[in-house]
Batch of 3 targets.
Target 1
Amino acid sequence: MDFDRIIDRQNTDSLKYDFIKKWGKPEGVLPLWVADMDFRTPSCVIDALLEKCRHGIFGYSETRNDYYETLRNWFSSRFNWSIRPEWLVKTPGVVFAICTAIRALTDEGDAILVQQPVYSPFFEMILENKRKLVTNQLVYSQGKYSIDFSDFEDKIIKSNAKLFILCSPHNPVGRVWTLEELLRLGEICLKHDVTVVSDEIHADFTYPGHRHLVFADVKPEFSDITVTCTSPTKTFNLAGLHISNIFIANRDIRRKFKKELEKSGHSLSNIMGITACRAAYEGGSNWLIELNKYLSGNLDLLRSFLKQKLPQIKLIEPEGTYLVWLDFSALGLDDKKLEDFILNEAGLWLDSGTMFGIGGEGFQRINIACPRSVLEKALIQLEQAILSRFN
């Protein structure tokens, strides 16, 4: 659990580190963008993968009942959510699952609602699959985001929306939605016969005072209209192993989802993903507790540094996730100039706010799941760039 340890990820086929030139970024830029962590996965996962490697046969694989029991114990102990074995559908990833749900549950031309600014594949997949994108823009006021419920319902009615993709906890604005907020969203969706695809991949990352609620479990009726997307990949830094656990209680929705999954040619899961998921959920709890403490410490560093040395940059206080939303609008730079400043003057590779859609202008997303010394180095580089440019 040495989260301070700096691990060299170069020449490991890392998207984050080895493709800087290919993505057109400057040599030597410090990457704090894509949502994977710079920490080793728990030793229990590494040991399980090594054991599988020593066995030496990587044939077609499927999960047995012990896999389901591991999932059941995890979601019950962490979220007090009781799942059933028939609900489970495994996919290579949450994005893959959301795309499958879009094709399975809507037709070309149907309206699908998202809440921008939001994780860009949400709206990209809608458009790529020739559906109509409808946005219920989150309201940014006094440093916090909220939902315009009147607009949410109005957009559903006017567009005759068939599907709503919920991001919970929300990426990039960091909200952990409250019981009241989830109830209001769900009641509106029930009223207008809207199916909910709930992306809960960041559920294991919440900060003190906040608790993730599984949308499908907020009210019994919500379970019948929801596709719940989960994965251990963000929690335990396993994104490259491609395993996600999707839960669909409604038989008809599950049948349509599985049928679309078959059309894609996907049938069996990655044996290493299965192995890692089981090991992480069975033995990774203590590691995750310490990780969340460490992330809270990184957030403390970021918060105090901005307050003391970079008051021009506003922290949108995250309630969950290790992805932090920063407001750079006070610098007075348009988005193209801001991106150039961050990359070429501060030497940082962050995610530009514009990639998250409407409302992302003037913002940047930073990944704080890195050794504290790396985060401190990034902040010092940013401070020096701002002093050089604006003083």
Target 2
Amino acid sequence: MPQISIGNHSSTGWSVGQVVDWLLRDGRLSAEPSELVDTLAAKLLAAGAPLWRLRLGFFTINPQLAAWAYVWMRGRSTHVEQYPHGVQQTDAYIGSPAQRMVDSGTPVRYRLDHLAPSDHRLLHELAAEGGTDYALFPLRFSDGSRNVFALATDDPQGFSAHDLASFETLSHALSPVLEVAATRRIAETLLDTYVGHRTGRRVLQGQIQRGAAETIHAALWYSDLRDFTPLTETLPTPQLLAMLNEYFETVAAAVSARGGEILRFVGDAMLIVFPADAGHGSDLACRAAVDAALDAFARLEAINRRRRQGGDPEIRFGVGLTAGEVVYGNVGAPDRLDFTVIGPSVNRAARLESLTKELGVPLLMTAPFAGCLGRPVRSLGMHRLKGLPEPVEVYALEEAAGAGA
């Protein structure tokens, strides 16, 4: 097989067979779509294909995104593009080559050196960067969706009939390979969304047997909205849901930035775990939990100023914080399992949160937790917590916490 240069390619000088063979043997083992795209482009160039740009795009199931795309250009690494829900109603998609290909289910091609002023702006952008020819092929997944395999060249002659036939042959082999990679990416995203990153990773690694558990040291957070029950009786449902989502989003941003993970939403309550680092005990986990709480209180204070101006009820919540050894494991019925944490610290965190309402203090913690902080705290005395045989000394931060209690 003769070597083909990008600037002077022949219509029959390269074979797609070796690329397809690699794809079905080794390419399908790529764990990440970006890795697949990088190597696929390298294989095509090595085979002599006149390739300048390659794009793989697929629709996804994600609460925030409608589609992913992985884009490679010669001399650059693959980058990821994310498209939010509603993108199909925007000018970026309407009338685009991708829409034409998806709607028709057939390959489409554009000579970039013979564009009309009315052609989609993407085509003009590719032409301005030096592209001469652009072709898209549908990748059909088993669910019936049509996804995108797009290639461009900067060869002055554009793509030959042989090039286009070879790319179409490749698209048939690429469809099932990309579907596997896309399905795994979707699974990871959904697990991250619904059970958290650490738990989702355990599920994908096969740690799903009922009763499988490990003992970990962690800081535990339990929080609850104030006055949620009367709000459910008075607020219209859309307004109530918007308020809940604003609260959850604010807390999640503060918690995730500091290594915490939301284990469960219980109505308006949240159970969050900050696993302790093996080398530092619980100190870093406890400090991260307090910093996250103070951050969330501060963010909600700003949000509440806006809500007051709009006549909306303020968002206030309390937090109970504990630290200790918990069992992190897989429990439930044979056909309905859940990862959770079990132990005295979990119960104490929930009881402390309830006590924040009585004491009018937004954040309370146990003595072991307070001892890890290295910052000023004050004792609020001994208090009986439901379910515990003996009173527990309860602590608060010296500084005011903000949007709580």
Target 3
Amino acid sequence: MASQTAAPLAIDKLETLTPRFAATRRLSLDLVATLSDADASAQSMPDASPAKWHLAHTTWFFETFVLRDHVAGYRLFDERYPYLFNSYYEAEGPRHARPRRGLLTRPSLDEICIWRAHVDTAVQTALPDLSPAALTLVELGIQHEQQHQELLLTDLKHLFAQNPLGPAVWSAADLAFASKVAQFSAASGSAGAMQWVRGDEGVVSLGHSGEGFAFDCEVPQFSALLTPHALASRPVTNSEWQEFIADGGYHASSLWLSDGWAWVQAEDIDAPAYWQDGQQFTLAGWQDIDPAAPVTHISFYEADAFASWAGARLPTEIEWETAAAAFDPASGQQLDAAAPVQPAAPDGDAGLKQMFGSVWEWTGSAYRPYPGFRAAPGAVGEYNGKFMSGQFVLRGGSCATPRGHLRASYRNFFYPHQRWQFTGVRLAKDL
């Protein structure tokens, strides 16, 4: 996921920005409160980052783009840290290689937390006197850290899954939210029969309206044509995926895109990630697969093959966003300050369920700029435009997305083979 630019922030929002900044920074620390320094320093694969690095990178973002650039006389806490914790901002100079982040055993987790506290105090002290441009960057930094909270959880899950002991990130005795973390992949309970819900047709508007925060890949608004179509009433479930497996779905080349079939063969894929012998790995260790929960940790290739097997297709992001506009983006199973897992709530009685939360839903739309897209000036403009190649759009958020972070126009994006994120699928079909 990448962060982007925001619309100018009104000064009268300062009274809400200040507590949101504090709450966001606190939640990141809550998520790592039970980790050892070793837990927080390890890197399980090049696509993932250590928990400690997420804490540091988000701190570097505030220190660099808010304090360094907008607070007169501010001195960096440690002039060596920008090299260690810059992600991919070319304008900010050279940086430590991403696949080698797990080798940063120093600074320690405690030292990173001391740095965080220093930066938090400096930002909170400066907030009343910051310019509108700087306040906009604080808002962007909050949104950016919320994205990293989700990535932190997905990376921790992948890391702990590599341990033959199958350890839980949180035990039943840990933190207020531990008792609800067991599944942490999707809502449980009765899924109900899948139904088809006819979508809107004709010319519609796509993209963010301009009210409130948005990343720059969500703008500008533009008109698009919707042809007759229907969306499935809910995401595909684990039990439906088990039917796909039992029917030989992973071994039928006719269902797969060419690149997807090559990936399945090369990687010996025969089930979603974290599935083994009727169980799935979760942040609470190995658990029985819940047949009614939305399937998760599937790639775009798998989602597309399942849709072909089901006689359907993936929705376009235009179809998805138009349908989601009627629902509350803060509904469903999402990450809360008090509990990483909340029960999935009905999204209304329009026939569509779980439009937000539980699992990110793959679309068939390539991640490309909207007509009229312009990258933001300066280093923050590197966050989006240069990644609009070879990736596909996901919509709706997941159980690991901080509640309040989503909106109907939100665009997530990943490469088609990636599946360590909480990714699922909702079917669509032409009418």
